[in-house]
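thoughts on my protein:
***
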Amino acid sequence: MTGPERAARAAGLLLLLSAAAYYLVFVRAMSTTSLWTDELTSVQEFSSKGPLAVVTDYHDPNNHVFFNLLNSLLPGRASVAPLRARILSFLSVAGLLVLPYAFFAGRGRPLLGGLLGWVLVVDHDLLDLFLQARGYGLAAFLALSLSTAVLRFVDEDDPRGLPWIVVTAVLGTWTLPTFGFFAAPLLLLLLAVARRRAVFLASAAVAAGVFLAYLPVLPQLLEQGRVYGARWGRAYASAGAVLETLRTYLLRPRALFGEAAAFAALSGIAVFPWFLSDEERRRSRGSLLLVASSLAFFVACLGLQTPIVRATSFVVVPLAVGTSLVAAVLLDRPRLERRARAAGIAGAILLAAGGFFQAWRFSFVPLERWKDVGELVAETFPDEAQYHVTYVPELLRGYVRPGFRNQWEMDDVAFREGRLVVLDTVVVDGRPRIQTSRLAASSVELRLPQRRAGFMSVCFTPPSRSGVEGVASNGRPLPVAPLGDRDFATGASAAGATTTVALEAGRRYRSLVLVRSDGPGAREVECSIRTSGGAAPEPCGTVRRSGRFTLVHLRDRPVTTVTLTTGQEGEASLVEVWAYTVP
């Protein structure tokens, strides 16, 4: 191996490591954060009901059949725990990272393999979609597998690629019906180029396989296609949708690619293969088939008009593979090869640095917070609490205690009296939010930020009995009556750095709530409790702060005192303190 070849391999591995770092921090975030509406629907309506239900029910296009079939065959198919529900997508995206390098490094192009792995992984919007508990990541991996099979069959004349073309085309279309708009033109072009009986039989096998796969749900599939536009709109009604697909899932940095730049990039993809010589074109037949089929896919989507943009995301995979290979062939020309390799290595170093930087500065806000709402409810309120969920209460089912009861009609009196908790779970922008502060001046609202509709919130008022025996600030006793009168207009000064709350003995406590005045207050930095019979202080559970409200989870223990230390003097006044007990 020559020096330049070793440098190219090292640069490819560096890109791979950079992409792996970004992938791992993203997986860590999505393995602990809530599923959103479409993911929960996919699990609850399909995979949780078993394989037979998955392959025979298509009443909702959320059924990405092959993905849900695999999910239903694994243990815990009804689980909405993020790691379990998304594990297939995590593995699929790992394949997007590893397969390009393994395939192209084995063919003398390790730098190209590392670059493709980086492009297909190091992007927030791409992984935010591909790692969901739905079929998008699996479809992307199947598109990559199909692309490599085409390259093996066409460019290397390897007949072992043809069976993989059949398998990946059928399974990809069984995952997302839009996959067929890529696979069909690919097979037609392959037939035109190869003109072999084996290719014709393979194309017939794909058509038969897709037909048989969807046969049990064919009437429902056709009905969904008929009403989809009226129900969900026509997202692909103009060429701007093609540019949106490219800008969202392929071109970056996104800030540099407005519609004009994206159009120029698309035009370049369509035009620059014409600069190939006859010999270069012969060497690039597989790549050109991938590019042409991707463009034909966009034409088909524009004709149909109804595909949503995320359902076209997988096509950036074969488009990236085909385009990069054509570009690599152009840069292999003797006059360009040395300079192109040096520029490629330098560019790889910069991209790898960018990937490591994004992994280091990574932050993630979930699309929706169903899991967090469910956990907050379970860790805060007594088992007998009543709830009013403002939006699709069924989606909380997997995240709340078995005895959770939803009250479908809002009961204003019960809320004011502290007997009803309101869960504002709106996830649709523009939908009215419930204004609990208008129902009760002394109400708590804990907001959980999310990307859809801004936030979810848990709203409640103090119970009739506070469960508090005494409160002290820096050891100085405070009057208890105004801190347990369910009136936020009264209170007591608590300027000390340490606040101690004594609870009624002989009971187990689930949580403690403290409400402070509107003035600025220090954030609690330390929390400890003492339990009946406990010889030493123990750590609290989770401490949450939301504005002037502090919520301390006590984990159903026989707590006698709770101590909160802020580390500074001058905390705002306390206006209310109460605790929730368990039987």
